[in-house]
Here is the input.
Amino acid sequence: MTPTKKPDAEKRNAEREAALTFVRMAKEKGLDLTGPDGLLKQFTKSVLETALDEEMTEHLGRAKHKKSKDGRAANTRNGTTAKTVVTDSVGPVRIEVPRDRDGSFEPVVVRKRQRRLPGVDEVVLSLYARGLTTGEISAHFQEIYGADVSRETVSRITERVVAEKDEWCSRPLDRVYAAVFIDATVVKVRDGQVANRAFYVAVGVDLEGDRDVLGIWASPAAEGARYWLSVLTELKNRGVDDVFFLICDGLKGLPDAVGAVWPLAIVQTCVVHLLRNTFRYASKKDWDAIKRDVKPIYTAAAARDAMLDKWEARYPAIRRLWMDAWERFIPFLDYDVEIRRVICTTNAIESLNARFKRSIRARGHFPDEQAALKCMYLTVRSLDPTGKGQIRWSARWKPALNAFAITFADRWPSEGTQQRKRQLHT
Here is the structure.
């Protein structure tokens, strides 16, 4: 076992011993671990009151019942005040908060007028990001914890992230990205009447292989290349000077919008989208045969005509589909297989859209644009809490980045620029 793993093992053993101790104590006292009078709630109450008492001792400079060096001090303890605070683990806990005579004590563990411990706000935001409405979150706290957290309180908690969202949406971005994936998802918004609105999303992969949601934008109508032009222009204004590949789903007019903002960017249609649409025109019994005929196209463009000639009589729509998409399909054929593997699909952003849809589905529609943006931002905020997904993503992109560095050597930032960026991130 390496030295770095030993403290982790010791920590796990200590946590296990503590858990076993709790179980034994509960059995000896005939108590439940959880519940209104459970041992965990009693322990939480004891810990909070002990911490508050220690804060009072530090504030006064002496322990309880201990006289000061000069005899009777001007400020002393003055009993306690009962207070109920809501926790995310054991629900409401009634505690005794110590007071001092001149009222100068400012506790930190449970601040004055604080009724919820910080973890509760995080639970509210997490539940909101997972699609629960304010009423459902309020009912959840009542049912699970027996705590009264009103819908208005839930709304106030979620409103605190609006400023954070606005700052996130305007933050400076890297100068160069290896790839930017873009797509729009449809959200129902009530603006006089409920209507479908397109919300635009961009995900960038930087030259370190890190993935980042660059922003979310609400449009007044359905998805269109004209609005994408304004979104890409905003990204450029936030610092993005160059993009090697922009991967999209083949929206008409989009290549022109991209070229107006980043002339050197290569627009790549999602290959998976093209294949899905191909199979939509074909009978399921022919799918395996079509797959075999499509595969050679990845290595030899000439195989396209052979595939289309073979299936044109039975499925004429497939020829039209491929010919219309061909100019946006072929760019990735000119590059190494490592690059092809990471730019052939918009799955990176489709998985994010799936999370958005899950959060949005429970609500049906939103009262306004800001409510939808808030929900989507909280969904992004809750992604990959352990960071393991980012590690897997970066590992998958490492071979491609080596190929990018060689292929786009003339557009690759200097080592000094990269080093300054790493220092900013750390």
Observations:
- Residues 66 and 72 are 10 Å apart (CA to CA).
- The chain has 17 helices and seven strands.
- Residues 1-6, 422-426 have pLDDT under 50 and may be disordered.
